């Protein structure tokens, strides 16, 4: 087990450098000149002399590998530069907005997991029943409705018509209900179908037959053995979605005026705030890497055969 964890941790290093290099090159290939964007945001006419001065100040006149090395060193110190718009350190701006995104991400993930596990599990146990057909309809509806449209529908019914929940902003728990539900419905559709398919697959495995012949209760077989292994594909999807949510639920935050990381990124794009855009890309890549690493280790804990499969392949 220790060897498997060590290999996974070592594999993160090249992935991290590749992600940061890709993000750096995308910024370099952008047609927007950072020096010109800075002067424009400061309402200063970008003359050639000023442009050259700012390029030298930002280190843009140095070779690309030097700029990349400096970017990595600064990022390790959580130094992402200064925002062109607010003239505040980007990391401080992100730190102010990240709690809102964390709150929204974990609440929607928790809601999706709490609802999708019983739906997917019961749909598999009672295959082709009325409940199974209803769960299939729910999955189709949840997967097909666009997120922004669902958000506006929820606002219309629960805020405008029924006047039960607030429309926008962040405050009490009531402000969290609609955006969390908007994000969770699509995840419930995916997770419930993944879990259903995985449970049905596990029910065909020999260990289930052996457990039944030994007289073990069906409830124990289903919950303690089948569900524990069948939840693995759902965890894989959870790792990808959690990284996405932590990186900022851009559409939902914009619809509900949620003051999170994703909305900050959208504002940076419109304002051509290059340091914020670069910080967003790099932090998003790191979040995806960390979330998937955690999910891999959690899957190995739930199903120790994963580490043995990795050994046997070598």
From TrEMBL:
Listed SUPFAM superfamilies: MetI-like
GO cellular component terms attached to this protein's record: plasma membrane
Main subcellular location of this protein, as a coarse class: membrane
Record InterPro entries: BPD_transp_1_N, MetI-like, MetI-like_sf, Nickel_NikB, Opp2B
Transmembrane parts of this sequence: 9-29, 104-125, 137-160, 172-191, 279-302
Entry's localization field: Cell membrane
Topology term for the membrane: Multi-pass membrane protein
Keyword vocabulary terms for this entry: Cell membrane, Ion transport, Membrane, Nickel, Nickel transport, Transmembrane, Transmembrane helix, Transport
ABC transmembrane type-1 domain: residues covered: 98-299
One GO MF term attached to the UniProt entry: nickel cation transmembrane transporter activity
Family of the protein in this entry: Belongs to the binding-protein-dependent transport system permease family. OppBC subfamily.
Subunit structure comment from the entry: The complex is composed of two ATP-binding proteins (NikD and NikE), two transmembrane proteins (NikB and NikC) and a solute-binding protein (NikA).
UniProt name for this protein: Nickel import system permease protein NikB
Species classification: Bacteria, Bacillati, Bacillota, Bacilli, Bacillales
